[in-house]
């Protein structure tokens, strides 16, 4: 999978050099390139923003540098999906991550300030598949951190990136709408706290039932919204 990112902070994406995704890049499973939006400006101050038409607080990203940056990135091979992380987008989720993991090429367009001139999204949709995706209902300073979270969620589902695909199966529980059960490892007693007896019993049926009951209890308690439908 190839991932291009357009941002005024390419350094944000240096973290993709480490851990599992760093290894996937070294193995050639993942190619990531961060492009500096300011390289597509032509004025001395490399200006990427301006005041909003209609008034209001904050600044809006000007369309021209975005147009040129996306011209460049989209001129290359393939049939990419262009993702605009935005609090006004559709909610990102595990099924969307799984869908995007099937793609050969993703482009993340990371806006700052009050967002990007909407015509950039509109124009891009005339030449590529576009998704406006939101990580959640809170305020970030820009799309970069949201893009990083989405990239991690998507890239780990690319075949070969995770060493043990069985760990992906277990997580499908969360896709099925329940939170995960609590996990424990050695020692069996630690600072006066014990691992639940059933997990030491060797009774696989009892363990599976206990874990399922824990998932249901946790979900009812902290995420009752997942049980609604
Ligand atoms: C938010 O994807 N988001 O959730 C996002 C992107 C850019 C700015 C934001 O405030 N929430």
Low-confidence stretches: none
Helix content: 25-40%
Mean pLDDT: 94
Counting DSSP E segments of at least 2 residues, the number of strands comes to: 9
Instruction: Compute the separation of the termini in Å.
Output: 35 Å
Rounded to the nearest angstrom, the radius of gyration is: 22 Å
Shape: elongated
- Going by helix content, strand content and strand pairing, the class is alpha/beta
* Spatial ordering of strands, largest sheet: 2-1-6-5-7
Question: Concise description?
Answer:
Helix content is 34%, strand content 18%.
What can you see in these coordinates?
The protein has 229 residues and is α/β, with parallel strands linked by helices. Helices cover 34% and strands 18% of the residues. It has 7 helices and 9 strands; from the N terminus they run βαβββαβαβαβααββα. The strands form 3 sheets. A 5-stranded parallel β-sheet has the order 2-1-6-5-7. The chain has a two-stranded antiparallel ribbon with strand order 3-4. A two-stranded antiparallel sheet has the order 8-9. Helix 2 runs parallel beside helix 4 and helix 3 packs across helix 5. The structure holds 2-azanyl-3-nitro-phenol.
Task: List its salient traits.
about 230 residues; binds 2-azanyl-3-nitro-phenol; 7 helices; elongated; 5-stranded parallel beta sheet; two-stranded antiparallel ribbon
Could you give the topology of this structure?
Elements: E1 2-7, H1 19-26, E2 31-36, E3 49-50, E4 60-61, H2 63-75, E5 81-91, H3 94-100, E6 105-109, H4 118-125, E7 129-134, H5 144-155, H6 166-175, E8 189-190, E9 193-194, H7 204-222
Parallel strand pairs: 1-2, 1-6, 5-6, 5-7
Antiparallel strand pairs: 3-4, 8-9
Helix pairs in contact: 2-4, 3-5
């Amino acid at each position: 999978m190839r991932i291009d990112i357009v941002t005024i902070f390419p350094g944000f994406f240096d973290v993709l050099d480490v851990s599992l995704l760093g290894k996937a890049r070294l193995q050639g499973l993942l190619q990531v390139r961060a492009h500096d939006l300011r390289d597509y400006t032509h004025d001395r101050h490399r200006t990427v923003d301006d005041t909003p038409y209609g008034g209001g607080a904050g600044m809006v990203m000007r369309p021209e540098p975005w147009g040129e940056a996306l011209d460049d990135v989209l001129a290359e091979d393939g049939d990419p999906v262009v993702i605009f992380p935005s609090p006004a987008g559709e909610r990102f989720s595990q099924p969307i991550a799984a869908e995007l993991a099937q793609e050969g090429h993703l482009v993340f367009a990371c806006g700052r300030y009050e967002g990007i001139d909407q015509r950039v999204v509109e124009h891009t949709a005339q030449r590529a598949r576009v998704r406006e995706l939101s990580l959640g209902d809170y305020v970030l300073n820009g799309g970069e951190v949201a893009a990083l979270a989405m990239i991690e969620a998507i890239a780990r589902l690319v075949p070969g990136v995770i060493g043990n695909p069985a760990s992906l199966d277990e997580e499908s529980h969360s896709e099925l709408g329940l939170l995960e059960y609590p996990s424990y490892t050695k020692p069996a007693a630690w600072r006066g706290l014990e691992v639940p007896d059933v997990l030491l019993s060797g009774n696989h049926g009892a363990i599976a039932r206990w874990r399922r009951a824990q998932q249901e209890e946790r979900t009812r308690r902290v995420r009752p919204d997942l049980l609604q439908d």
